[in-house]
Amino acid sequence: MNTPRIEINLSKIQKNSEYLVQKLKKKGISTIGVTKAVCGDPAIALAIISGGVTGLADSRIENVTRMREAGIISDITMIRTPMKGQIQLIVDSCDFSYNTEISVIEALAYNALKKGKIHNIVLMVEMGDLREGIMPNDLEEYFKRIVQIPGINIAGIGTNFACLNKTAPNQKSMSLFSKIIDRLKSKYEANIKIISGGNSASLSWVFSNNNLNQINELRLGESILLGSDPISGNPVQGLYTDAFTLISEVIESKKKPEFRKTSSAKTNSTYFKENDQVILAIGNQDTDANSLVFPNGFTFVGATSDHLVLNTSNLKVKIGAECRMKMNYNSLMKIMNSPTVEKKYL
Fold first, then answer.
1. pLDDT tens-digit readout, 236-292
2. Left (φ > 0), alpha (ψ -120 to 50) or beta: where does 320 sit?
3. CA 14 from chain center: how many Å?
4. Residue 82, preceding bond cis, omega within 30 degrees?
5. Residue 270 has what pLDDT?
């Protein structure tokens, strides 16, 4: 088989999706499957849909277009604030979009009306991640202006956690988020259907609490794809963590010296020892090499654009042998973007 390649077990992705959908349904929460890490891969998107999600979400219109051209008709949400140059494409291809800027919302409304449509938006509120979001004290003023814009329907309010600064949701932040929404509903008699409480980082909070306030939706990517928690990196109980496997070929196997420099007031010396070392035909151009998980007996030394160097406890590894690796979210994203890594579906 060709290498490097990534083997994608669609059945395990479907089962992860189904497990989370069913478990969250018991909590009154619907699940949106996020496809941005896999570049909107249609086969993977269909596996996620088969698990019972209520829709898909992505951050790039190119990925949405890829899924639409493959015949996917499920609701798709644009979860990154739209770029003005892509407004028309988003109105045409996306059922919902997440927004934080009034000028962008006005452009969405203008294009929607030209098409005879009403575009659904979810307003994002900043609750501690310090990435995208309207500040809580400004939300009411935004809402008051946006609710009067023809061509726009405020379908929901959302927030985000643990993407930029790894701040996890807790009862205090979620209670505050719910109070903000209560105030809007009461003052404006608004029918806000979607209360989106974050991504895979919110699962731990949801599963450990009975009082979820008003949260009725989560957007899940990493947990469905990799079965892991974004904050701790630990497996989520009940999920497969091996739906994706990266395979690369050994192109060199030799004993090599390991150089280290030591420096102090008394010494300034260089010493080395020999290690059994292999090189794989893959590098930082293809993936985030630091984020890969190697099989027993292999330890990461370093990587360049097209070489990945490992120490090994078994120098009998043959040239042309395959090394199988697991990956985290960052390494998966780069792999799925690489045109030189073959995708093989199981």
1. 999 999 999 999 999 999 988 876 666 665 556 565 678 899 999 999 999 999 999
2. left
3. 16
4. no
5. 63
Q: Which H helix or E strand runs over 104?
A: helix 102-114
End-to-end CA distance of the chain: 14
- Residue by residue, DSSP assigns 237-285 as TTS-S-SEEEEEEEEEEEEEEEEEEEE-SS-EEEEEEEEEEEEES--TT
Comparing C-alpha atoms, which of 135, 197, 142, 139 is closest to residue 169?
A: 197
| Main-chain dihedrals φ then ψ at residue 329, nearest 5 degrees | -60, -45
CA 88/CA 108 separation, integer angstroms: 7
What is the distance between the alpha carbons of residues 191 and 156, in angstroms, rounded to a whole number? 9
Give, in order, the Cα–Cα distances in Å from 26 to each of 16, 55, 178, 295.
16, 18, 20, 37
Q: In which region does residue 28 sit, left (phi positive, over 0), alpha (psi from -120 to 50) or beta (all else)?
A: left
Contact 55, 75 (CB under 8 A): yes
As a whole number of angstroms, the distance between CA 291 and CA 221 comes to 17
Say whether 185 sits in a helix, a strand or coil.
helix
**232 falls in which pLDDT band (50, 70, 90)?**
very high
Alpha-carbon gap, residue 98 to 323, rounded angstroms: 40
User: Pairing between strand 152-159 and 244-263?
Assistant: unpaired
Point out which residues pair with 263 in neighbouring strands: 268
Instruction: Tell me the pairing of strands 268-280 and 217-220.
Output: unpaired
CA distance 80 to 119: 15
Helix (H) or strand (E) holding 102: helix 102-114
Q: What is the mean pLDDT of the chain?
A: 94
The single-letter code of the amino acid at 32 is: I
Domains of the chain: 10-226 (3.20.20.10), 244-345 (2.40.30)
